[in-house]
Structure formats: structure tokens, C-alpha cells
Amino acid sequence: MANLSNKAALVTGGSRGIGAAIAKRLAADGASVAITYARGAAAAAEVVKSIEASGGKAVALRADATDAEAVASAVEATIAAYGRLDVLVNNAGTAIPKPFEEATLEEMDRVIDLNLRGVFIATQAALKHLRRGGRIINIGSCVGERMGTPGLAAYSATKGAVKMFTQGLSREVGPRGITVNNIQPGPIDTELNPATGDWARPQIENTALKRYGRADDIAAMVAFVAGPEADYITGTSLTVDGGTNA
Question: Within a 10 A sphere around the Cβ of 217, how many other Cβ atoms?
């Protein structure tokens, strides 16, 4: 497939998990890809190496998603490398699963800063460069729409905010031919949320399929929304959750 030939994409938090899968899939579909990472340079380098080994183009850029100056520099570096920016995937995020009453203010601030403020920062920086046909793709969560997992109250609040931000921004940039969409994963087997972890059993029980999904399941939906066949889809939340919210 080459649906994204001559396109350039920036994936925040692209060194591992869902972000890495997204970066590899976009590259497989023809896009030149840049990924950001805050730490784990070796993991980021492996993603780039994997993409290049398959004939794609990729660069890794160190930028904490909560650092507005670093993110703006990453956007500029993407354009310097590829001459354009067509797709922004706001993937960087975190969760600190624990009862809300036990969460510290520092932990809550981190979740808000990364999951919501980070989306604002990257989106504002990218919008200065996106042209007609551009894509902004946010990675939300099924719990941002329907909350059924104890221990994720603060996390779900940030993902609910991402959903509403997606709707609001789509109205603002639609006349420019830019789409804004929100992909809402359910339980996906990653380092952050392993299928064998302490919090896995209640999540599995909440799904209709009774299993975790794969990072590639989310990457496939992102690739579709980034491609030409999704040109009339905007302001929506597309849920990939194995029936968690069914």
C-alpha cells in the first residue's frame, strides 16, 4: 500500500507501544515519519532502524511532549527533514492506575500535562504548517467516553477532554480542509498496560471479545484516518476496544 506517498507524519511518543506501531504502519503506507521521545533513545533508534530496513524514511527527535519549545522544535525538524507536514498523531500519554483518593497531586499533574496539555502544545505547533488535506489524529481512550474501569478516574477525565477538543477543533479547521479525529483504544497489550498486569483481568472481563487488543489494531485505524478514503471523516471518535463500550 502507498496511500500516504509524498506525505510526512509526526507521531509523538513514537518510541514504543502504540506509538511505535503507528509510526511503522504509516511508513509502510508510504509516509515519511518523524517520532518524538522523551527518554529511551535506544528504543526510538530501533523504531527508525526497523522502518528504514523496510525501505521507509524515519527520524527520531528528542522532545518531551509537555515542553512547548521542544515540541515546536520537533515540528520544525520534521519539516526540515521532509519539506512538509501532513499528519500529526498526538499519541504521547500516560496513566497512573490507582484509586483516585490515593493519587498525589504530582501524579495528577503529570497525567493532565501529558495527556491534555501535550495535545494542545503539539496541535498548535503543527497547525502553523498543515495545509489542505492535513490530518490531526488524537489517541484518546474508550474510557474517555464510558468509564468502567476503577482506578482510572483522572486518566479518563483527560481522555474525555481530548474527545471534546477533537470535536471543537474540527469546527475551527474544517474550512481549511484539515480533519481532526480521535481514536479511542480499549485495553491494548503494551508496556504501559500489559495483558498480564495486575489491572488486566477486570479490563479483559469488560471486553466483548474477552481479550486484549494489539498495538497494530490501533495503528490500522490511524492509517485509515490518515489516508485519502477518510477525507470526509472529521470531529469524530472512533473506538477500537474489543467491545469494551458495547
Answer: 18
